[in-house]
């Protein structure tokens, strides 16, 4: 299982699937709500919305039945991080810097967008 380069709260864009003109999600942008590394999937806000029919229950007088519209997970290979400068999809890279603190040198890794080199 490879390390996922997309993290929670990243702004991502769907780069695969059906186009928006045909009812799909390709081209949509949204924030990552949750990451599932065991199945290589991410939950993106406003993308891959599904309808769930739930049965009415009696939980202390709260009627929970009806049709709920929620997001479903998307495979991580179908999304790409959005470059903060150009607002277009980009790959994720790392920049290694040496930082000196308290007389010690430490290496610090920073996630960057490959397209522009800006920090994510």
Short structural description:
With 120 residues, this protein is mostly beta strands.
SSE topology sketch:
Blueprint: E1 11-14, E2 29-36, E3 41-44, E4 49-54, E5 58-59, E6 62-63, E7 66-71, E8 74-75, E9 79-82, E10 89-90, E11 92-101, E12 104-113
Antiparallel strand pairs: 1-2, 1-9, 2-3, 3-8, 4-7, 5-6, 9-10, 11-12
Question: CATH class of the largest domain, anyone?
Answer: Mainly Beta
CATH architecture of the largest domain: Roll
Could you tell me the mean pLDDT? 88
pLDDT < 50 stretches: none
Give the N-to-C terminal Cα separation.
Answer: 23 Å
Alpha carbon gyration radius: 19 Å
CATH topology of the largest domain: SH3 type barrels
- Spell out the helices and strands N to C: EEEEEEEEEEEE
Instruction: Count the E strands.
Output: 12
The number of helical segments is 0
Write out the strand line-up for the largest beta sheet, numbering strands in chain order: 8-3-2-1-9-10
Q: For this entry, what is the oligomeric state of its chains?
A: single chain
Instruction: Specify the biggest β-sheet.
Output: 6 strands, antiparallel
């Amino acid at each position: 299982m490879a390390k996922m380069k997309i993290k929670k709260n990243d702004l991502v864009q769907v780069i695969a699937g059906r186009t928006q003109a045909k009812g799909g999600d390709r081209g949509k942008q949204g924030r990552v709500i949750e990451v599932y590394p065991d199945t290589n999937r991410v939950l993106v806000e406003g993308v891959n919305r599904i309808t769930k029919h739930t049965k009415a229950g009696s939980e202390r007088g709260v009627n929970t039945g009806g049709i709920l519209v929620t997001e479903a997970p998307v495979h991580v290979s179908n999304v790409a991080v959005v470059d903060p400068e150009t607002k277009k999809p980009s790959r994720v890279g790392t920049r290694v810097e040496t930082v000196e603190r308290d007389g010690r040198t430490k290496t610090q890794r920073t996630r960057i967008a490959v397209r522009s080199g800006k920090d994510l």
